[in-house]
TrEMBL record, chains A, B, C, D:
It comes from Silvimonas amylolytica. The keyword Lyase applies. Catalyzes the cleavage of L-allo-threonine and L-threonine to glycine and acetaldehyde. Keywords: Lyase, Pyridoxal phosphate. Its cofactor is pyridoxal 5'-phosphate. This is L-threonine aldolase. It catalyses: L-threonine = acetaldehyde + glycine; L-allo-threonine = acetaldehyde + glycine.
Length: 342, 342, 342, 342
């Protein structure tokens, strides 16, 4: 049994489809810095997926994808509206502030880890003088840090509000696949058609060894972004090894199937745990993560048995994340150990 | 025949030893962000290699390794002495300036692409008022951008001068393996014993898919460097895939054997080309790169035949770089095509 | 009557003692960049005032004083604890984040606009992993943005806590004079003897045309700070005109007498307003600013009569600030207009 | 005699016209942060002077004016073409790099301290790949650091080249007055009509105590510049004291008369020195500074007599700068001491 199975989706390994093309890319000498066939194919695959001529850049990790994308939307004296539980605020060690040279994050409340139009509007209206940074962008996380998913209408509403208020719209899609799998809408619908200007499209949590894609639906915002990546230490010399896994994952819909599996495992776990006495869901389980309130002795019992998981918001909160590699056996073993600890 | 074989050592693929451990690392769930066994083993292997308790951090690429290492040595109002042909100056799109928030690079001349103590001292003495950035660090490239190697005594002399002038000493070792293979001295001798404070130890050009190591021999300078990496988008979540290749490469001296092969191929190519009428070496061939002056029609003939290579300093200069994967056949084919073009 | 008298203490003009030395400094050619007699005298006067050999730098305004002082205490991946109502958070347009290249401000609650040890300790303990900026400094505002003053014991307690937790301690003293006038303790007691590492000592609000002093009680933290000022556009070429007013103000205790006057005017205003029905103090009046809840129609009536003042925290809150130039007539006129509006 | 008279034009005091309005501005309470009548009048006076509806911002010093103006033209991964002897390169301690978060300065040669179109074009063409910062702006100094002045046609040629190459065009006019006085063309002709996008208009060297104006002729580039100033610690709270001297200086053409006097003193000094045996001009004297090669023993003799001046480019070079306050007696005394030292 894998006692680390639920610690995070980034404890998982490389998904077979990603590994296969990674290895296939390991042929003889190939042009570097993205001037190769694998990168061309990966970019084209992403353009096909989004049914539009977007600008695609591969970077190494999620902090970089988010920080560079956001930095391209603002200047240092601007601000970015995000949820107070968003990854850019809570888990990137000030990456967005660093790459933008000081841009402030404005923290909104919002149910289920989601921004809403009112919350954004309130922050934007709160200060309009030059003594406080000027709001210029909004970022949402899809799916969110608490395992929920913005409905298509919610994204559209934020997109419309951004247009109205003159704000750029970024989507942190470290778990974009899980959101699409949950909603069953097309990637195009969920992004540029809903007003998203730029997407951080997560590869690592989806099953790749390393690498995320930054996808600009607005060509103007992408201007000179290749320079930005290079300067920021985010241009891979052997780019084919970042790009090839995308080719593998996007073929035959593997990315979505794998994400659907992770979601299904989370749903199974969520259903089983929620049915237990003394256990309650902290947030609805809509993607691949389950947040539950566990009695303190149960949480301790799990830790004693070697289960790795994050505590969350207070003593009893526990986060269990599923991935492409989570098995039925993993889920059932965890549920059994929770039960036996009650 | 691989017509891209000599374009750069980063056109090469993944070396078998690196790939083998990369794949071996792809087991089930493993702790992320470096809290795993592969990362522990890789760090230990590097500490063994350098025979000292150094601080080791894995980052994604060379620009990041250099920029973050240098940023940890200076403040924005300081300056860094480097050679005018150094990679940090010519090929990182201002990465060092960006990560340090504005630190100026002071460009020294110096024969064969190498800094010398006089050149450093001249720049340090040139300005000592607060209207110009204050020198705080020196960086040298070992082996250099023009295929030469600092002799051990040269490194030691710079190390001693740095101590005397109160400057930190960084070594850009994107091709450190090639330098060690050429000199036949121990990594310890060539770095901390010679006064180097921090080394960017190149993995990619050595045969890995992605990843470099930043090695601090001075614990104080490494303080909070993990935070710096995280904030800068240089902390891999699935760290095992950056670390594992180091384990493979450092076993059985593979890293050195592979670098020695690359150097040998360069020497063979260099000897063959230098013997041709009308062809002359621009710099002595001491590592894995050959810089020659080719008659213009020969350069053109090579390009017409599909050979990829960089022009360098003026029309006739050509750079040919060998790697772990360069073959005798590659070398002989290139030489033959040069000959036939004369 | 001056209807702008209470808008802010920075609406006041130049205090006679400051103006006199400003004009006295306007003799013939004088060495620039601080290598002049006026600057030497001003620095000495500040060292005398604090009874210690501190390092003194004159900069142009408060945002610069605070931002540069804080930037000298942290790196970009660190964080700074401040009160959520502090000027560095609410009114410097992200200056601290900009000059530090991204350092995050951690916002503490705290009664009467004051940080306390518990609040600091909670924020410091909240996150200790590398995914969130590491606390490295604390900044308090003395007197605060809401017109209160830290008691000497409160400053000492924070100083002791900073030492224990390894945090540097900065005091934003844009209104330091008002705090000293209120407390009646020596500047030395209130700063370095209480553990303060660096002080932004406000000149402008005290009665100067332009200029603040950054005073380091810790020589090591002041290292290369002159370079930092120069690079940041904060080194005056005709430095004598920033320095001379300090000479004038620090002679014969003018700075303290003038601040005492401002405080007295605020007390008079506060007492008069608090005695009115329907009017209540939002915070105790301890320095030169009065915060009251006014009935909405009274606030409107004042505005209709041309009074300029800031609204504060909700509809009814009003801020009235006194300065060296506030007169009894100003105070009485305002009180009369409030009364007539009731 | 003023032995510091020629050290720099920033050793001079406040010009009577500037002082008069400075003092006139010291009335009772006045709105802060530029919302006052003096600031309005100063901005209008500058708009009148340039005969166009430009955007005007007052900042504290020249480093700030240049750095903020340049930062508004570029991103961190861009580069700025300047002369290798320009103030932004040699005397601002990396200010432009700091405020732009790392933008590289590309250093051009060029006769008499002046850029020319060929030099700019060469640097722009030198690198067009993403591994090197992308040129986005040109900055020239008018008058230059070596006392020369760009002819109107030279400025126009650079302006046209900038348009053609897609570069923004900044003019460092720390001594703009001296250039205009020399050329006898209108400020409008010399700036926006010649293609200049933004001008740093120097006040301090012209005779003010503190303060420069940043003048944008391109509204789009000025967008949110007020926020940039505020965040960068360059928004004066008592703005009237920065603005009022401009009102005084721009009335009755005082700024130009004063600059003309400085130029005339420099010409007189230049003519007298050039006529001496063993003394030669390093650059033509076109503005208010004289650069001469002095025999080493003469330079030493001057220093022994207490004269303050900068050495320049090698042992014998000496710089003498005149200002609004330089007198005939100053000039003649210096000439006499040079003569007696021969």
């Amino acid at each position: 049994m894998q006692k680390t199975a639920f610690a995070s989706d980034n404890t998982s390994g490389i998904c077979p489809e990603a590994l296969e093309s990674f290895i296939a890319a390991n042929t003889s000498n190939v042009a570097s810095y993205g001037n190769d066939e694998w990168t061309r194919r990966a970019c084209d695959a992403i353009r096909d997926l989004f049914q539009t001529d977007c600008d695609v850049f591969f970077v190494f990790n999620g902090t970089a994808a988010n920080s560079l994308a956001l930095a391209s939307l603002v200047q240092s004296y601007h601000s970015i509206v995000c949820h107070k539980l968003s990854h850019v605020e809570t888990d990137e060690c000030g990456g967005p502030e660093f790459f933008s040279n000081g841009t402030k994050l404005l923290l909104a409340e919002g149910e289920d880890g989601k921004l809403d139009v009112d919350g954004i509007a309130r922050l934007v209206a709160a200060r309009t003088d030059i003594h406080y940074p000027k709001p210029r962008a909004v970022t949402i996380t899809q799916s969110t840090e608490v395992g929920t998913v913005y409905a298509l209408e919610e994204v559209k509403a934020i997109g419309a509000a951004c247009r109205e208020m003159g704000l750029a719209f970024h989507m942190d899609g470290a778990r974009f696949a899980n959101a699409v799998a949950h909603l069953g809408v097309s990637p195009a619908e969920l992004t540029w058609k809903a007003g998203v200007d730029v997407l951080s499209f997560g590869g690592t949590k989806m099953g790749m060894p390393v690498g995320e894609a930054v996808v600009f639906f607005n060509h103007q915002l992408a201007q000179d972004f290749a320079y930005r990546c290079k300067q920021a230490g985010q241009l891979a010399s052997k780019m084919r090894f970042l790009a090839a896994p995308w080719v593998g994952m996007l073929q035959n819909n593997a990315w979505l199937t794998r994400a659907g599996h992770a979601n299904a495992m989370a749903t199974r776990l969520s259903d089983a745990l929620a049915a237990l006495p003394g256990v309650s869901l902290m947030f609805p389980t809509q993607a691949n993560a389950v947040f539950v309130n566990l009695p303190a002795h149960v949480a301790q019992a799990l830790k004693d048995k070697g289960w790795a998981f994050y505590s969350f918001i207070g003593a009893g909160g526990a986060r269990f994340v599923c991935s492409w590699s989570t098995t039925l056996e993993d889920v059932d073993a965890l549920v059994a150990d929770v039960k036996s600890g009650l």
